[in-house]
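Protocol step 6 of 9: fold each sequence in the batch and record its structure tokens directly after the sequence line. For illustration, a two-sequence batch is reproduced in full.

Sequence one:
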Amino acid sequence: MLQRLALLSLLGTSAVAAFDYDIVGAGSVVLTDVDTGISDLRTIFTDDEIAVSLDGLEWESNGGNTTDGLLFYKTYLDGELMSEGNMTLGDVGRELPSGLDAGTVKATAGGRHTIEVIVTSGEAEAVTDREVESYAAGVSILPLLVILVLSVTTNMVELSLFSGIFVGACIVAGEINQGFKDTVEDFILNALADVGHGYVFLFTFFLSGLVAMLERSGGMLGFTRYISQYATDARRGQVAAFVVGVVIFFDDYANTLLAGQSMRPLVDSLFVSREKLAFFVDATAAPIASISPVSSWVGYEVGLIQDEIDAISERFGGDITIDGSGMALFLASIKYRYYPIFMLLLIIGLIATQRDFGTMLIAERKTEVYKRTDGGDGGTSGAAGSMGDENAPRQDQPLKTYNFALPIIVLVFLIFYTLVQTGDDGSGEQDFMDKIESSDSYQALLWSTIGTALVTLIFYLVQFTKDGSLIVPSGSDIKDAFFGSSEESDEPKARSILSVRDSLESFIIGMGRVFPACIILTLAWASGSLMKAVGCDRLFAAWIVGGVDPSDLPTLSFLISLFMALATGTSWGTMGILFPLIMVPTYIASNGDEEIFTATVAGVLSGSVAGDHMSPISDTTVLSSLATECGLMEHVGTQAPYVLVVVIISILFGTLPIGKGAWPNFVGVILGILVLVAFIFGICKPVLSPTGAWDPITLLFQKIAKTEGLEKLQKDTIRAASGEDLSKEVEAKKVDVEETPEQSQPIMEKPSAEEAAA
């Protein structure tokens, strides 16, 4: 290791004659952990061997007096000599070195230490030093523990992340005052100042603003009404909710708000529980956005991947075995994202068979057996308030589906067009995927969303409406719309679907929706940098490189990210923290195995989504609950069992065998699908079962708890399955002996044929 470091330190040289120059500057001290090879250390662990090198040696002509051609160094730790040696300048081809390996040091006690290096050449001498904190390796995980503990106990992610950064900064600085200053100036401000991070911020803001414009125009509502005309029973209503969730693939917040708010009245009228709707909304938000190449997630995910590729490339001099493009690796990782893939397939199976298990089966039977149109026991109508009313379309707004579809088509086209353009090297020998893999995704996503927002603004501006219908405007209509009318009249006037003011107002509302997420994003980036500074990456690297079988890394990365996201409630924050800790050690431990590295990337990304999916403090979990007007804990309690099932299948048939090389990836996916089918038909039970049978888990609970409510519900299920109308019974008493809600949601009025066609 030391010989390799010495060789690397001599790569940068000044092309001058060696022996008639004196050393006048020793440059800066660079520290590298010998065991893991991680360099640019800001802190060191006690009893760890640390390689010391100098970067930026300065030389000056000595007026023609030649030296003996030897460069000597002595390295001290707190005044005690730790290493000494020399280098023959003749060995470097009569070129002056700009770097020097200066031996190793080892701190045996914690605290503040001074590392001093004295370099001499002939009679010339140069000195440089550096102060550094030393502590036991286990201390480095303290900031991470602070984040996890506070996330669980306070349910405040922002406070938890900031507190973790502050604690870590104090450890690095060795004092509280400097630690607080470094928290803001060193970690948070540097996270904000990064150009790549700026691209992600702008792209996220522009896409969120665009989504709000689509919502304000009435295009989104028009699309959902078009879908709803085909929903005539519970199965078709669930299909409609799922389709809306899949189509809104580009943003998890937009997906949650649109599908939750617009489909709630429809599925209520079809006797579907709020818990089931909240599950569909939540399960088609992050799982789809995280694997879509065109979404508000892709910029962040690709950026994290690219940062680690760059770190690996820099460490190994550009000679790496994985693809150098973050976008290419992102696309390659999709087939290893077992959790979102299996979750989406599970939902399709549940809808097709109308089967459920556990708490979801109970919630569905309580709603469908008694034909409740209030969403069932999990409904909170009137308690949670209405989401997104500030950006709702006007009452007389024509709800045209194409006002949603065309901007999305433009966005997808521009993204792929700019990806191809930024990835074209001009050789004419690249195919489409070569250009995509070589593209600059930051630029493509940003300019595409900006362009689509401008095109959409103009598109809405030139469409005129009057009395709720689109019209071909006259010259006076255009004049009045843009410049105002001098004549007062009580008659409705023609106007643009969205004026410039309307578009800007909705755009700002859209940006405001993701502002809290951007705060978490900034703190997550800062946390990632802090984890490196405090040495948590070295601790993970020592575990992974020294004691973990590389074939277990896809599974370990999945589980670690799952539990962290579950505790913190943020998938983005989990990704931002874990990528710098896991990916470089994974590359080293696997000897650059491309499949293991890609599967580990997928493990972090999909594990973060899985943990976020069942965390009660996750923003998307809370937002799904609010948008569907379903109780938060009712939503979490009915969704979590399905998450656990998919997690187990993802590990047993995905991450474990792909790491061990047991079978090709497609075999694991096929086996996972077969197990899902077996689960649906073997464990899950029909909602309206002629026998009223419970699934094994619920049956076990019923036998242990001897719950009268479940026994009665089972009997009523048999009656309802035989065609008996039990809707009147719910007016007197709920199944769980609670009082009946005083109000029920009205059945959604189906759109007319003309509205549906629009």
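Sequence two, same batch, same settings:
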Amino acid sequence: MAENRAAELNGGDDEDEALRIAIAMSLGQDPAADRNARDDAVVDLTGDRDDDETESGSDDDGDGNEPIVTKPLHVPSSPRKPQDQGQQQQQHQQHQQQQQHVVPSSLSGLAALGIDRKAMEQERLARLNKRKASSPPSEPVELRPQQRQKTLVNEGLGRVLQPSKSDRELPSRDVKIGGDGRVRPDQPYNNDGDGSGTAVPLVIRGEQRSRLPYPRGVVKKTWAYGHARQGDDIRIEEVLQKDKLKLAVLSSYQWDDEWLLSKVDLARTKVILVAFAATETQKEEMRSNVPRERIRFCFPPMLGVGSMHSKLQLLKYDDYLRIVVPTGNLVSYDWGETGVMENMVFLIDLPRLETAEQREAQQFTAFGDDLLYFLLAQGLNEKLVDSLRNYDFSETSRYAFVHTIAGSHSLEEKWSRTGYCGLGRAVKALGLGLEEPVEVDFVCASIGAVNDSLLSALYYACQGDSGVKEYESRTAGGRKVKDAKLGQDDDVAAIKRHFRVYFPSEETVLESKDGKDGAGTICFQARWWEAPSFPHEMLRDCKSTRKGLLMHSKVIYVSRKPNPEFMGVETGKSAVDMDMTGADFAYVGSANISESAWGRLVKDRGTGKPKLTCRNWEAGVLILATGLENSGVHSGSRVPSSLSSSLARGDSKSMLHQFAGCVPVPMAVPGQPLSLQGPKAPWFYQDS
């Protein structure tokens, strides 16, 4: 029955509904039980205050211009048991069995917990007295997932792990925009505040930043149980740092609330959940079943059947703000605790501006502007959003915040800032726009009804186009139609030679640690794959470099097209002479490859002007690569002949070497092309 329902979805165009059905089926639930149930959680940001201050704020739903379709928090069943052996298997199996007692709720998982406020306060006071009497904590130790007591906040994990010394931050790289509009990473960063050649003057000096874990930003893979740590991964405990976390603004598409509450200490941390509820009644039920002084909600406006798919986190500590952009949801398996799934996460720590002079000196970055624009659009408390200006955003000038805002955007100043239009705008603003071809490698966990239109729009956006190029070729009228169609066909054929999408084959899923049981959130429909309009030649098998893991990451790697003339193979030019530095970048965020995630620019029937329609809320960040520094190519050095030849052949694996030490490449490249049928065909959740 569930398969029939999935096959009848809106002509096969609603990949979000299909993903919800896939998740329900993988968890042994009936997707027909409540079609309106959603997995998104919307949260209302409250005032940026200390714990001893009165908290003011509202649970406003936004400006009310768009219809609000709310969805309940989804509490997934426990992740599947990893196939480890020996004592590890027994210990981890106990952990899994304990998690399997969590009962999914058709309403809010927080409501299902039945929080007893009086008992919670008594427990808080008992913990406080215990801490006062206890000795200082011991040194951090490596912890496996453990059995949890059935309490509101898990006390069994012990001291929160701190980032290890082996963790590598993004290279310290000051950026400057050159005369041709491209980023020059090796030129000195202006530290005097005169603004010459820089986006923002520094207002926090180096010694203050050195105390922060990630003052310049970092991209890491999520830790995975059973896999040795290599310095490029991170655990959820290391992200949240619950022992000193004061305020947490958390967003997710799926929620395991009991697991989440074991990762924060409600006695010291206020939690704001960006969540989704199906009705106003459900919103009130969710609010009434949590301690309002510690947990609050914000419900962003939605468009039709879209999803609150953003995973953005804002974490406040005493003297800095941590901005986190993960690809995973707030469930145990997305953060590696079952050893079957991996994700990616971007983090940056921003120091607090302590004086009025520092705050006045700060020139807010484009990253900061777009972040605040996104938060306000979600309906978060304006006072809290404005309080983010109390933190030094100068180090974010090397990045761009890329988002999708659910709704219909008719004004150019709005549609140009979000979806794939916003992606192109961000690429151009960073000085990365190119007219020549680029190589695009897109890692995703869900694929929608992709066609040439979406493919072209995303590719042009990666070149810095604002969305107009594909829109004009698609909407050209009169005698221009035929010529435009011919030109578009030629362009699409060329694009497909430079665009690869990484998605697991059926064989890869079945050979993974948990087999098909671990692929409940990997979503693609056979009917979309079999459609004549689907660009089959783009798909590559997505195999993790960590054996047995499946991938829930959403990453786009964009590189210059390699060719002998550009690479200087014959002339022996240096990397700087060839202007390779700063040309490559990656997107890390929540957006899969679908129109729901990136939007569609159409002609407004009323005005005849462009209008962008988006279903989802998404959040991501653009990160510049460091050139080929970690592949033996440094400023002024010669390109090794073997590497030049490899790049000239268009070897994707060599192309992605420039991301080493900057953005992890979690999949084996170049991936093997997928087949129309057989074990090398894509994984289809309906066949499970």
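Proceed to step 7 once all outputs are recorded. Observation for sequence two: The first strand starts at residue 176 and ends at 177.
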